[in-house]
Design brief:
The chain is of the alpha/beta class. The protein has helices at 2-12, 25-28, 31-37, 42-51, 53-56, 68-81, 85-89, 96-111, 121-135, 195-200, 203-209, 239-265, 277-296, 323-336, and strands at 140-150, 169-176, 182-190, 216-218, 229-230. 38% of the residues are buried. One of its GO terms (molecular function) is hydrolase activity.
């Protein structure tokens, strides 16, 4: 009986809670180290924490809750390196499960801030002028392409995520301007989905079809030729058509460079993300928002890793040739590239 009382007494004693020491990276890292480890300056990180405070503020001040600033630092560390979550957690001295929840919260908060495609005339004219200065291609308001973000094989609908290159992925559609800023992003389709299907089911497709957006997009031969989406000639038969293709390639190349810069800055998009597809989509969108923020702040691009987009395997134009699209393309050839 005495033994029972002792055991009961020991269990009844409340264990003292032990809180890990949390370090603030902004207090211990130099400006150069912050750019290397978190990809942003001290001031930019502080401003981002203030901007997202409403979404990241803890519900209670009890139990040494984690501040929005440390939320941002931990998430940026994971986005920047693509390391294991427990490695990112060590940055502020937290457990892996806590770090996972923080990364998800920050990604959700950022993903809701994806850019809206510009519709005002002055902005579109600036975009057109920047594209024209590359190779003399007129009336371009964006370059479009898809890129695959590698993921761990999901437990459900696994075959849908297996892409033509043989690994599991999310197929991401993006449109960028000549300054490598993302204007539109769709990150919700499994890797087996064709680029043209993603486009046809996107809001940007409907906006162009309804005439709400003026100008043309440049895409590769994996996309259908339309009056607002110009693709290259598969087999140019004249010098003007060859000039058109050359200018098209040089101008459209910005989207390839955009993907390279994005994946170098946020290496998690180049590595394999070991999360559910839904969480991966939020992380992709969050990285796009942060990429635009870095472009706006004119932060230096990283040159340490050479990440190149794999060339497309499309050899035929998707969905055939649109009559109006053929006419617009031929008019550009005759009026611009025949001189």
């Amino acid at each position: 009986m005495a033994h029972f009382n002792i055991c009961f007494y020991e269990r009844a004693i409340r264990r003292e809670r032990v809180f890990k020491d949390r370090s603030n990276p902004l207090e211990v890292l130099s400006e150069k180290e912050l750019l290397e480890k978190l990809r942003f300056t001290r001031h930019a990180i502080q401003e981002l924490a203030i901007d997202l405070e409403e979404h990241l503020r803890p519900e209670t001040s009890r139990n040494f809750s984690i501040s929005p600033l440390l939320h941002i630092c931990l998430a940026l560390r994971f986005f920047a390196t693509g390391c294991f979550i427990n490695t990112a957690a060590d940055l502020i001295g937290e457990h892996k499960s806590t770090a996972s929840r923080i990364i998800h919260r920050v990604a959700c908060a950022l993903s809701g801030r994806l850019p809206l495609y510009p519709t005002d005339v002055s902005t579109l004219n600036k975009v057109k002028a920047d594209f024209f200065n590359i190779a003399g291609f007129p009336n371009v308001v964006g370059a479009i392409d898809g890129t695959h973000i590698r993921i761990q094989a999901p437990s459900t609908h696994e075959p849908l995520f297996l892409n033509r290159k043989g690994y599991h992925s999310i197929n991401v559609q993006a449109i960028c301007d000549a300054k490598l800023r993302v204007l539109n992003c769709v990150a919700r389709w499994p890797g087996s989905t064709h680029d043209s299907r993603i486009l046809v089911n996107s809001q940007i497709h409907d906006a162009f079809e309804r005439g709400e957006l003026q100008g043309v997009l440049l895409g590769d031969s994996g996309y259908p030729l339309k009056p607002w989406l110009l693709t290259p000639f598969l087999n140019p038969v004249s010098v003007p058509q060859a000039r058109y293709n050359t200018a098209h390639t040089k101008t459209r190349n910005v989207i390839e460079r955009c993907f390279g810069v994005l994946k170098r800055r946020f290496h998690c998009l180049h590595a394999e993300l070991k999360m559910k597809p839904e969480k991966v989509c939020n992380i992709i969108c969050a990285c796009v928002v942060l990429h635009n923020m870095a472009r706006d702040l004119a932060l230096p691009d990283l040159e340490d890793d050479q990440i190149c987009e794999e060339p497309t395997l499309e050899i035929t134009e998707a969905g055939g040739e649109d009559g109006s699209g053929c006419y617009i393309r031929q008019m550009i050839v005759e009026n611009i590239f025949s001189v």
